[in-house]
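User: structure tokens for this one?
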Amino acid sequence: MRTMDQQDAWRNNLLQDVDLWISQKIQQKMAIKLKYTDRTYMILSIPSNASDNVYCILLAHNAINVDMAG
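Assistant:
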């Protein structure tokens, strides 16, 4: 996977998005039309509900527990 010419705050090289990289590799090997749908659009295109709030709280609590554990 190719790196971009940019670095993050910790001076690590930023990598290309894996989905764009895979689609380019597939198109190089096969003569097909491949349609790409941005994954952020799929997340933002649906409205949130109460269970999303509960799920986010569970994720946050688990993240804190993992961080405090070590």
